[in-house]
Amino acid sequence: MRPIYLLFLTDAWLRGEEPSHWTSEDLLNQHVLGNERKLLRTRIEKYTGKDRCDTLLIACLTLWRAATLLPDEELSSFLPEDWKLLDSAAKIIFQTDALQLLTRLGLETQGRLAPMRPDILGELFILNPAENRVEEHARLRLLRQVWRRPQEALPFFLRLISDYQHQLDKYPDKWSKLLPELETLSSEAIVSFAKLLEAEASLTESITVAELTVSQLEKLEREWAEKATLSQIFAKALCELIKKEDAEESAATVNRLEDLFKEKSTDPEITLCYANGLCAYSEKMKLAERFDIAARLETLSMMMPDDHRIALAYAESLLLLAKKQFVIYADESITTINRLEKLTLLYQNDFCIILKYAQCLEQLAFFS
Questions:
Q1: H or E element, residue 170
Q2: DSSP 8-state symbol, 350
Q3: According to the model, what pLDDT value does residue 368 have?
Q4: pLDDT tens readout for residues 276-294
Q5: Are 260 and 275 in contact (CB under 8 A)?
Q6: Which of 32, 135, 179, 257 holds its CA 20 to 30 A away from the CA of 322?
Q7: Taking a C-beta distance cutoff of 8 angstroms, is the pair 94, 100 a contact?
Q8: In sequence order, what are the residues at sequence separation of 6 or more whose Cβ sits closer than 8 angstroms to the Cβ of residue 234?
Q9: pLDDT reported for residue 25
Q10: SS3 (DSSP) at 228
């Protein structure tokens, strides 16, 4: 358990709560985020009265979410309507401005609205639907606005999907609401969006989610054919899908990846994805198919001798082939070991390729 969770658990016990049956998300939601919200409401009521409380609370929460997503953004121009609400209230009550009101509410630090921290908490703050319809409308409006700053927003969403992928698989509606409508995206935002989908395809444990994500990327790649980056991202996602599928399912995905490789054969990143996809496919295959895949990877390696990454995929395929041979036709494994030895001599300074050769020799010693 992360130390931060132990801190929150201790605080919950001291407040008289019973967190023993909570999940980690329950702890963050019910105790930390819930208490932060209650504290903010109490402070707003104290300084502005109950009449203004609901409206100002939603404005504060929206701005707080924006600061969490885009910590360097100038919020007064990014969300002018929400900022004006705070500014007007501050002038009426304190004869001051919005930033001074945020200071009194405990949300300001070093002249800016402070993001929700730590990251694991801030991500849940963005991921969770709001408590009421009006606030949820404001949250979704913010998310649409955020995608106008794709390069700045992408690191946050990549962290979120890494930390909460288990929730996104279980509650896909939460995830879909974070994503923009394609027709609203700029050319720059399309690439950032595709990178996020690639991360989802890689991290998800759901075959269904991975397949849907790959289909979305295929659609993007076709609609924005002039963007080489999208083709590379699509190729990486296909490779990740192959790793998740069984032998029968992955055969069709390998064919899709091969078609993309043939179309973009001059792109070294797509060639690498094709090599890695073949290698992942080989692990699911019987002996005859492993022979074929090793031969195809040998050809790729000879086509691009300067790319050690493709040579490594070839080395891995030879190791996989040898492992199957050791069990079925031990004598044939010697030929495979010799091929791997020759590859090692060609790449004498590549530790990873040498390691594959060493692993193959270890297997030989085990079965001898």
A1: helix 165-170
A2: -
A3: 64
A4: 999 999 999 999 999 999 9
A5: no
A6: 257
A7: yes
A8: 194, 214, 217, 218, 220, 221, 260
A9: 74
A10: helix
Tens of pLDDT, residues 224-247 = 877 889 999 999 999 999 999 999
Write out residues in the chain with pLDDT < 50, as ranges. Answer: 1
What is the spatial distance between Cα 119 and Cα 162, in angstroms, rounded to a whole number?
A: 12
φ, ψ dihedrals at 132, nearest 5°: -140, 165
Q: With contact defined as beta carbons under 8 Å apart, do 231 and 267 qualify?
A: yes
Q: To the nearest 5 percent, what fractions of the chain are helix, strand and coil?
A: 80, 0, 20
Tell me how far apart the alpha carbons of residues 81 and 103 are, in angstroms, rounded to a whole number.
19
Is the Cα dihedral 268, 154, 193, 78 positive or negative?
A: negative
- Nearest one of 19, 40, 193 to 116, comparing CA atoms: 40
SS3 state of residue 249 = helix
- Which amino acid, residue 199? A
Judge contact between 69 and 24, C-beta under 8 A. Answer: no
Q: Report the 10 Å Cβ neighbour count for 196.
A: 22
Answer whether the bond into residue 129 is a cis peptide, omega within 30°: no
Structure tokens at 216: 């979305």
In this structure, the number of other CB atoms found within 10 A of the CB of residue 82 comes to: 24
Distance between CA atoms of 240 and 202, rounded to whole angstroms? 6
Q: Give yes or no for a contact between 139 and 130, defined as CB atoms under 8 angstroms apart.
A: yes
